[in-house]
Design a protein that fits this description.
The chain is 74% helix and 0% strand. It has 23 helices and no strands. The longest helix is centred in the middle third of the chain and has 37 residues. The radius of gyration is 23 Å and the shape is globular.
Amino acid sequence: MIVFDAWIFVIKEREVIVNKKIEIEKGIFIPTAIILLGVILFGFVFNDFFNTTMTFLFNAVTDWTGWFMMIGSVVMVVACLIVCFTPLASKRVGGPSAKVEYSNFAWISMAICSGIATAVVFYAVGEPITYFHNPPVWWNIDPETPEAVVRAISQSQFHWGFIYYGIFTFWGLIAGYMIYNHNLPPRPSSAFYPLLKDKVFGPIGKVIDVLSLLALIGGMVTSLGFGVQQFASGLDYVFGIKPSNLIYIATLLLVTISYTVSSGRGVKKGMAIISSTNTYIYIFLIAFLFLLGDTVFELKLLTASIGQQIIDFIPNVFSLDPTNEGQGWFQGWTVFYMAWITAYAPLIGCFLAKISKGRSWRSYLLVNIFCPAAFVTVWFVAFGGNAIFQDLFNGASIGAEVAEKGIPIANYALLNLMPLKGLTIPIVVAALFFSFITLADAMTGTIAAITVKRITEDEAPVRIKFFWGILCGVTTFLCLFCLGSTGTTSLQNMSIVYALPIYILTFISLPCLWRMCDGTVDREIKALTPQQRESLANGAPIGPMPQEESTE
């Protein structure tokens, strides 16, 4: 503990009271840790049964309830857009006196990077090139045709665009308004205070928070696991260094130390700097691929893909392939992505609201939905469009390499054909590394804040951040080495299963959002005594609510 506390003093420049007793929220902390470790232990002892069970549950959830998840995803985005026209949208995140804490560039960079993580880097080439060579049957188009070019890009943009970020933004709205405008504890369950009142501080609220944590950690661990595998595949593809346990361990150790220390430094001195750096790397890569690729082709493809997204929006959301013509394609791609996103949403949403303090809620909604979506739209044209151009016009075999060696090598296969590959491939590896850190940094701090009581600062205690950061790293290690390559996939499948109750909670939250928009919550909390408001901030019941006066 002495060494631990000394490290805290080194990485924290602002005042931290190390010896102050940290009160753990046992009803959240202990069940989450026990369930997570129990699942890993169960998977280790009963490996085959665990993987088979998770695969069955994943298929059942995406097939049987995929329609429900897609409707829920659209509802979240539509709700955000409707709120833009209500009085709530003009209020500031954090209240009337809240001040903007980050520049526009740093704010937007964190909004983009905290949600993208390794996913968009991972799928930048692999997803569109796969659609180009093997389009879904209901597109009714031949592979490797001009029609397949545009559809492949627009489908990828749809998966990672404004619906993706709309889901995050919705949860940041419903939880963030109660957390930052009414000083409730920084937990997803606070979103349900307008409907449940004191019950959010009891077992119901604890269940909501534990489910949110388990879903997030499952998704986060698998993102780290897949990212480590992509990094190792890159070393093999470029330098001939075969993936090994040593490479995995070294990469995972470096990533875990980096994001844990970054989280310990706080958002301003850690996440904000890394996100801005990563955004500059993204901008460089996009500019490089547009300028040194076929620029005219890419600009035309960018315009065409935007139009195709508009045309295909309704089919992309609601087709669902009821006759299974595509043999599970819709469930395995579109429904899977929406569920995976929603598994992250409650906690990433809390983080997005946190970094938006001082902005209007309208700015929060529009920026967090459309700025990342615009970035993703250009990103897939730069990477996926270039890869398709190489295969279609230059006789390259990127699609064949991806089919043979897997998606992790896709980016490297493209850049290996481009000029300056000795520069750009290491930069992509750096982007992947920083993407690890930005996701894990944001989530480690948010997880820590949920699992302790009475946070009076913007940041959770550093020791708790370290605990969760190291636990996520160790869990990733166990998945990779104890459960095998299918272990990360199984844990990811589990996070998709966790997403189902979060979709259910989404619909339950809509009356809560209504009470926020019509001012009911503001009036109720304004009528409380200072002691009752303090109880709310501490996550303690306050007793019967004051009754609103009759207007008759």
